[in-house]
Amino acid sequence: MRLRDPAALPRAGLTLLILLLLVPGFHLAEFNPGVLFEARSRETMGKFIASFFPLATSPEFMRLIMRSTLETLAIATAGMAFAMVLACPLGLIVARSLSISRIGPGPGYLAGRILRLPARFALMFFRSIPEIVWALLFVRAVGLGPAAGVLAIGVAYGGMLGKVYAEILESNDTRPTTALLETGSGRIEAFFYGTWPVVLPELVSYSVYRWECAVRASVIMGFVGAGGLGQQMELSMRMLSGGEVSTILIVFLLLVMLADGISALLRKVTA
Amino acid sequence: MRRAHWVVLMVLVGAIWASFVFLSLDLGQLASLEALGQMGRYIASFFPPDLSPSYLARIGVGTLETLAISATGTVLAAVLGLLLALPAAGRFGPFPRAAARLILNFLRSIPELVWAALMVMAAGLGPFAGTLALAWHTAGVIGRLFAETLENAPEEPAQALRLTGSRAALAFLYGTMPNVVPQFVAYALYRWEINIRMAAILGVVGAGGLGQILYVSLSLFQQPQALTVIIAMLVLVALVDGASAWLRQHLAN
What we know:
Largest interface: A-B, 57 and 56 residues
Number of domains of chain B: 2
Order of helices and strands of chain B: HHHHHHHHHHH
Largest sheet of chain B: none
CATH class of the largest domain in chain B: Mainly Alpha
Radius of gyration of chain A: 26 Å
Helix content of chain B: over 70%
Oligomer: heterodimer
């Protein structure tokens, strides 16, 4: 006896429907695999890919790559420093756990409300524009080079860090802080004796993780001219020198692994 | 504070200082009145955004293009990811498993934007390059997630079918697939959400969508138009966030 799958027809129908819905999508995305196999593009691409090997390892190129790699690391580090300068005050303002007026009627209720809203808005604005768009903007504002990358990471990651810092301050055990505030200590004392010891490990581990992301981001931002390894890769691609591109790709992967390793080490030491 | 903490702190401060020196960033110059004034003028030149109907129509097309890039890229990635996930889950023995994992790792470790720059060279400027770029990177991510799902799927249903005489392919389709398809769909939708955000910015290397419009208008010093594109990006991402939060809440109940 031949068995039939009773659900086959509806399932096929649903699949077909989804595929039909995608047709305009494929059209809009100018989906045309043929373009990959056109003689002209096949020739350029073939030559380009063939030139991926051997890797470019001439001493002066390696020196250049070394410099760009260091530059990428420096952009990520300096950018993170900027981001933290931005994030710490904003995060502290936004965090509600340090609010005295929350406990009861007290001075500074209005000031707190007035300050908190724009700070929250600024953080949201900073982080909702992607870092590569910030990089594009800063490249035009301060010129090509690493300064644009540092500023872009600083602003975009400042927004992200500020929000997460505030969340960490609020989500950890807030009882020590509240106890201090309720017995009349000032906000600064309450922060350093009540909040700081509790939240420090989490703050550090999140910042280190973000540094790791910043390394990756600073490579990518180079594509729009913000310095570092990405800019070098963009140049090599434009000159169709595949050997250089493949060397840079390998260096990039090594760099990401290195950043992973450093961040794991830092988190272990500080945990 | 323990001694290790002091060491780490000193190293960090040293690293930050070294970074500023290495990049020869002159903070004084960056924060000088002249530089700040220049920055202020640049920011002011973005306002007001260009909201003329004809330009908004163009932005609308760009937004649709971005959505199309992300959707088609994700679908291609899901197909390719599934094809690679089968060997990566060890269905065809240890050697194909290692090979498939290597390919997946390679696809995944190259960021979307680098793929996009490469694909622009292969397929020319435009959304197709963006689609391919998303497809390659996402295939690496999705393939790995699919492979893990396959490895964790219960074996008994497929075994039962095999033992009662069904063919391997049918046992897979009717024994394993029903268990893993919901997870596959969830992963694909999750990546699609990420890819919409990515597709909006891939264009800065020429891979179509809103990013390309932004890049072109900034290059032509049309700041008001650029601001409109940025607003469109923010709105798109906010809508996607909202839709996904809403869907999650309603699907969970």
